[in-house]
Amino acid sequence: MKSLRERFEEEYAAVSIPADNKRGFRVIYRYYAPWYIWDLPEKQLSARKNHLLIISVSGLLPYLAAGLQDTDINRMTVPVIFNIIALCAYILELFAVFRFRSAKYKTDRTTYQSVDRTMRSIPLIRACCLLMTDITGICSRNFSIPDVSAAAALLGNLICAVLAFYIFYDYRKIPFRTEKNRLLQEDQKLL
Which of 2, 15, 52, 189 has its CA at a distance of 20 to 30 angstroms from the CA of residue 92? Predict the structure, then answer.
């Protein structure tokens, strides 16, 4: 696996440009690798980004409501372990959605791969952990009829799992394409 420095050196090149300083020039780094573009019109992509962000943030309410219930499901070891993993995944999901929201329409390879990798995996991991929280919680209660607080905890986890699956599914539907970067040709014409 290549280091971050090796990838940077593959994708960027140093270019000297004139400047008003002692040396008469300054060095900037230009991106020359292909552009990665989510293949939707910019306004539609922006609306989709906002939609995913709202869905992800709105999942906090049912998650808190489920976690604050005073019930066996929130105290037993196995469901709590899955719930802690789901909480970590939720934090990573929020970072991924915010990063996706802040990514430009044309983005570099590193940003695209980072966003794509996390948006295709973390919401799915979160949803599976929340479902496992519910399943292990129900199994550890010997399939007895849950009381109101246990039912609220199960329902809150289920709603969060559905939202996470929706984020995973909706992001996967966004097509992408690569576009040749013409900056190198433009810079060579200037020289």
Answer: 2
Spatial distance between the Cα atoms of 99 and 122, rounded to a whole number of angstroms: 13
Token pair 């989510």: residue: 38
Q: Where are the beta strands (DSSP E) in the chain?
A: 12-18, 25-31, 35-38, 106-107, 176-179
Q: What is the pLDDT of residues 85-119, one digit of tens each?
A: 999 999 999 999 999 999 998 888 888 999 999 99
Q: Return the half-sphere exposure (C-beta side, CA atoms, 13 A cut-off) of residue 84.
A: 7
Going by the DSSP 8-state scheme, the letter that residue 146 receives in this structure is P
- Please name the residue that has the structure tokens 């980072």: 114
